[in-house]
Amino acid sequence: MTVTAGPPRSRKPRNFPLYRTVSRFVRDPLREIERISTAAGGEIARLDLGASHPYVVTHPDHVQQVLRKESENFVRDGTFWRPLHSLFGDSIMSEYAEWELSKRILQPVFSTRTIRSLSDHMARAINEAVAQLDEPAREGRSIEVLPEMGRIVHDTVIKVLFGDKIRKAEADRLIPAMERLATSIAFRFLLPFVPRSIPLPGDRAFSAGLQVMDETLYELVDRFRYDPGEGYDIFTALCKARMTEGSGLDDNWVRDNLLAMWATSTETTTVALTWIWPMLAAHPDVTARLRAEIEAVVGDEAVRPEHLHRLPYVKQVVQELLRLYPVGWIFPRIALKDTVIGGVPVEAGQTVLISPFLTHRLESVWERPLEFDPERFTPERARARHRYAYFPFGGGPHQCIGRHVFNMEAELILTAILSRYRPEMAPTEGPVQARIGATLRPNQPLHLLLHPVQR
Ligand code: HEM
After folding, report:
1. What is the sign, positive or negative, of the torsion defined by CA atoms of 251, 223, 171, 321?
2. Where heme is bound, by residue (predicted)?
């Protein structure tokens, strides 16, 4: 006779009363959440924030359940999505029918065919933008990393994704406004249940940033509404759809999607490329191997897309960078129906927090998780891994639409810089740590001295 154990007994999640350590949480929220995730060791944790009790889900099987297998049950809605909804409205960064419509219209701009056809254009834009570093390099002046990476990324994205339709004066307003939004949103992001009537640090900067963003974006909508021109860029896709799809799509819809695409295509890439330099400075062996590969494949030529498939180590370095610093570090979901994750009942209406930052640092999933080691991404080792052990671009229906653009752009930029210069990092004020905002920016300005490569 066989005895079956019956359905698994439901378990309670481990509870972490964060309100009791509120000062520690406010001082260094990222470290506190990381501490909790490490203590839970891949099991489901529940944060007790007093007014809210979100689940933290980190195990790759559980992440897969939320993002992929039960994606229809776990949606981008609820309190934790509120700060982002106030920015992006009913755009591709929303949910339900509004998301589906925006996705259908923007997807063709990111198809493999379109991206391939734009790749030479992208490489030219990057080589031009990187060449502007020659002047500080020649003069022995150091550069500040984040603004310079931002300049290269903006020049590239405006030309390639926005069809060169944003004028310099407009970019000069959009860039600082976006920066204000990305940093000032931090408290609303962490404490989304605090009503708007209670002021939080960053609120005024956020409103000011949003106002500039709105003025500039509506000006752009005005200019291109009925005459978006031809091409495979974001303006053409959005404005043509507005003309052909009927009354559902108005100026606000175009504005929401322009803002969503501007934010996702610039802030993420700029911040990721900023993290590369402290990583390389701390790992001279990795830098030496990168340089040798780039020297052998690219030499003194301008980097071209055809070079990339012969630069496997450049790819590995970028992948490992996004393991330690997945700039889209947390994304919430709300359950529409009761379900069970890893034996823990999750009731309808509850929030589930998914964080590549936490999963990528789990000891049960990664050996020596805090060490920067691009060898983890040899094709064999990457293939052997759980699909959701590594997910800097999310997964399921909302998986990042720009991941191929990012990979190509980041690999081209890193290669272009290292083929021209030997960067030397200036001393920092204590350890460089990640600071929470819309993305994960470094906690201090970083400076590089660029020594021109002598051949
Ligand atoms: C370091 C670079 C990037 C990272 C780490 C990143 C990360 C992510 C993540 C985690 C998501 C999923 C969000 C969710 O499931 O709620 C996402 C979605 C998205 N990303 Fe990215 N992203 C990056 C670069 C880009 C770029 C360059 C673009 C555009 C050119 C872009 C456009 C988008 C869009 C439009 C979505 C929403 C897709 C949807 O919901 O259907 N991202 N990204």
Report:
1. positive
2. 400
Task: Please provide the average confidence, as pLDDT, over all residues in the chain.
Answer: 94
The one-letter amino acid code at 126 reads I
Site to probe by mutation for ligand 1, drawn from 88, 329, 400 as the one with most ligand atoms within 8 Å of Cβ, is 400
Spatial distance between the Cα atoms of 415 and 59, rounded to a whole number of angstroms: 34
**3-state class of 344 per DSSP?**
strand
Ligand 1 center to 9 CA (angstroms):
37
pLDDT (tens digit per residue) in 300-351: 999 999 999 999 999 999 999 999 999 999 999 999 999 999 999 999 999 9
Cβ–Cβ contacts within 10 Å for residue 383, how many?
7
Q: Is residue 36 part of a domain?
A: yes
Residue 26 confidence (pLDDT): 77
Q: Which class for 301: exposed (0-12), middle (13-18), buried (19 or more C-beta within 10 A)?
A: exposed
Percent of the chain scoring above 70 in pLDDT: 98
Please state the domain count of the chain.
1
**Cβ atoms of 96 and 103 closer than 8 Å:** no
CA gap 171, 190 in Å, rounded = 29
Does residue 268's CB lie within 6 angstroms of at least one atom of ligand 1? yes
Instruction: Show the domain range for 380.
Output: 14-452
Residue 342 burial (CB count, 10 A) = 17
Report the C-alpha gap between 22 and 172 in whole angstroms: 38
The pair of three-digit structure tokens given for residue 19, joined into one six-digit string: 């309100």
Q: What's 395's domain CATH number?
A: 1.10.630.10
